[in-house]
Description:
The protein is α/β, with parallel strands linked by helices. It is built from 14 helices and 15 strands. The chain has two domains: 24-51 and 314-428, Aspartate Aminotransferase, domain 1 (Alpha-Beta Complex); 53-308, Aspartate Aminotransferase, domain 2, CATH 3.40.640.10. The chain has a seven-stranded mixed beta sheet, with helices on both faces. Helix 3 (53-64) crosses helix 11 (292-307), helix 5 crosses helix 10 and helix 12 runs parallel beside helix 14. It is globular and about 65 Å long. The N and C termini lie far apart (72 Å). 44% of the residues are buried.
Amino acid sequence: xxxxxLQAKMSRPVQARRLEGxxxxxxxxxxxxxxxxxxxxxGQGFPDFPxxxxxxxxxxxxxxxxxxxxxxxxxxxxxxxxxxILAQFFGKLLGRDLDxxxxxxxxxxxxxxxxxxxQAFIEEGDEVIIIEPFFDCYEPMVKMAGGTPVFVPxxxxxxxxxxxxxxxxxxxxxTELASKFSERTKALVxxxxxxxxxxxxxxxxxxxxADLCVKHDVLCISDEVYEWLVxxxxxxxxxxxxxxxxDRTVIIGSAGKTFSxxxxxxxxxxxxxxxxxHLRTVHQNSVYHCATVAQDVVAQGFQRELExxxxxxxxxxxxxxxxxxKRDRLVQSLDAVGMKPxxxxxxxxxxxxxxxxxxxxxxxxxxxxxxxxxxxxxxVKNKGLAAIPLSAFYGEAHKNHYNxxxxxxxxxEEATLKAANDxxxxxxxEKTSP
Length: 434
């Protein structure tokens, strides 16, 4: 019996080849560090303030009413009330008639929407253009589908007159972008407003991308989860609304960012049926179905927002105003202590230059770990303040070019931002005291 049990141990490799090299994840590492050491977590991108009262009330109603079918399966590709209102809402924004059953699909957060896109469209030999810095899951998801990521960086231009840099100062080089397209290019991933930088792509920049996508017959996977979180009167322009782009674009959205409920994991895709039919195939053979009650409540949230569209009472308008104030508060805190913030035009995030603080964490020559990663780990362990290194949002070739920045999340309660400011002020005092 003993010898049989020894023989029963597996010796063959069990890991699928598609998982090779993508097992590390920045969030697993930094979430654990933050939980262990931080007193203030400005790392992960979720609000620590409550969602809007109307949404919580709708959830309570959904749970207490007699409609017990909200606790059962609904339509696999989206709860009928939710796809109906999303088709109405995005039809209005895009100026098109959308069919709820063929032009909209509900997913388990925007994350699963991205996964469906890469699995549905990308295969061995395909190239996918990714603009850096990028939300970190794009690269492993492309590789898992068998594709090759091709990176093109936003390049910062120093502002004049010693002003603080804005995310608008980070721009694509048109020649460099054009050089990345080839006959192997299957798709481009666009994220506007961009996480981690907070950049809102201008109409001119989007037209440049759109022209290249049309010229090379390339798909666009447009991650627009922060579409309502734009500041300083900026406008979020949907690339699918530009000439020639509807037919080749999948728009991705998220109730988590739209209604401050990241734990509900309700996302969606909007696009032409010729693209979404393939997403439905991946969806039905992976998760199959998303939580019915959460979809029902999100549908009620959108119904309210459609009625209040463009009015001061709209949650979308109120939230962006509130977050703009929080952004300005964190910009002030960081600037006052010598961390140079890059003012974001949108999202939950701002990136800050830590060059002035390099004396706190000495360089390690020939270290494989980027400097900002070591700095962020040191900061959470020694100062109790959690942030994310910007190098985590770059491909291997550019990790060390942008390794003196860290990303902070300002979608936090006043008390959290005040506690972060206190840490920064104490740190500054320690640095300047003899």
